[in-house]
Amino acid sequence: MKRRGPDVQGLKTIKLNDQQSGVFYGCTLHFRGDLTQQPLTVQDGSALLWNGEIFYGLQVPADENDGSILLNKLSLCSSDGEISIIFSQIKGPFAFVYWQNCKKQLWFGRDIFGRRSLLSSASDGILSIASLKTSIVSDSYWSEIPAHGIYRMDLIESVQSLTLFPWCYEDSEATPPLDTCNLFHIETPEALCGMPLTLGPHAISTSFSVLCAEVPSVTDTSQEDEVDLTSPDVLDQFVQPEHEELIEELISVLGEAVRIRVECQAQVCHHCMPAFLKNKGLDCDHSRVAVLFSGGIDSLVIAALADRYVATNEPIDLLNVAFQQKSNKSIQKSGKNAEPEEVIYHYNVPDRKTGLEGLQQLEEIAPLRKWNFVEINIPVEELQETRSQRVCDLVYPLNTVLDDSIGCAIWFAARGKGVRTNSCGDFEPYETTARVVLVGMGADEQLAGYSRHRVKFNTGGWPGLLQEIRMEIERISSRNLGRDDRIISDHSRESRFPFLDENVVKFLSQIPIWLKANLTLPRGIGEKFLLRCSAHRIGLKSGALLPKRAIQFGSRIAKAENRKEKASDVCQRLE
Fold first, then answer.
1. Which of 268, 360, 366, 462 might form a disulfide with 272, Cβ 3.0–4.6 angstroms?
2. DSSP secondary structure of 54-101
3. Which Gene3D superfamilies match (predicted)?
4. 482-489 vs 401-415: helix axis angle to the nearest 10?
5. Helix (H, G, I), strand (E, B) or coil at 425
6. pTM strictly above 0.90
7. Radius of gyration of the chain (CA)
8. pLDDT tens for residues 329-346?
9. Which of 571, 569, 131, 138 has its CA nearest to residue 387?
């Protein structure tokens, strides 16, 4: 746990009722205001464990701690509805546990996208809620707490119950009656924490808008025959008048999401933080922002927008990971007593190539910026050792081959330890100093970036694609974001997802599907069309045409060990 929050730790035992006590333990990765030990407490005995960032909604001055402000507001609440309203106002990633002492109620939950991890386990009379699997109860089974809403556990001595207050669309009232408005269509929730779960009397409003269901009456494929697909300006040939304003709006709203994520942090980098906490006047010009960087359209746009808001004297680190590959060629030694042929290994994987190409584009549009392109090369032996020692516990409770591949790739990328090119053109060892890691997750789900979206479109047309997009957005919290938070936070860094900013999601959800993704167009153009046009508009012309390539394939981790597995198989290496 201390790896997630190395700056300060705190522990407090609270008497919950005559029979039960709670042990609250918090580890803090410091970003805003004064360094504040958790759990946060107030005079009435209430306590808060807060792992989150309030970017919008509740007002948090730049020099104050958002967790302290949240607890003060919660301590003034006298009803479930008031607590629900507070959480409906928070825009940003979070997971929390709040003990409301006056009512003997334990509240906990995650934001609607599950951008912060929260697990639970109930065994031998001990209920555990934690950011990751711990060894408090060694044989217990942990599960991810669903990001379906906010949970309330009543711990009055005579009655113990668990209630869910689900998320609802923003066009509902702040505390609407619970009917069909709840976003995940929950009717009878499953048991959680070993207790039966019931729905509360109202839902919690979010910034979600109902996904625009408008589809074109006719699928037009004639455009493709009328244009030159080899032109570097091919996107301009498909842009319609109705796209123009949307392109500028996407650049604006996504840029604002990036801005708040790079500016909302401490004044110093990860390595300077211990000294800064002792001497607030310490200056630091090291990198404070890193991007998980494959050179693909998502990471490329995020990096380009980050350049607008990071101080010009600060580098931005581009973290590019590659896994050891066997060359198709080998060296056969000659002579009577020659040794067996020598296998040649390399790291020239697809993401390395596109990463270097992306770096060149960034240098062209932002020549004054120092871009640290960090080449992170991982031998198979190090992959296997690190998986068994660290990654298997962080991926848990997820357990598929896909979870293993993505989890390991992100762990090494977020560690940021590799080589960079110095001013003399030579490689030198380098490890990122950033505490904030920008990640492009969420673009594919909203803008039809996966190959399965094209398959769905080919079989079900626009309605089929729309149904698939809706499912992708609703399940994103359970598929990967909790896992990715556990992985990245293990390096004392915080993952931030501009494409999952509430304002970005709201903007994209209101746009008709064919204006943001046109799968009548070829691969590399039609999927994520609106984002590609935006990338082209800000100067990323060749990068705007790159087709989607998932990190497990681009980094070649999927081919580093066993090439015959299916992504959905249970991964034996994680056991």
1. 268
2. --BSS---TTS-HHHHHHHHHHT--SHHHHHHHHHH-BS-EEEEEEEG
3. Glutamine Phosphoribosylpyrophosphate, subunit 1, domain 1, HUPs
4. 40
5. coil
6. yes
7. 24
8. 665 555 656 566 677 889
9. 571
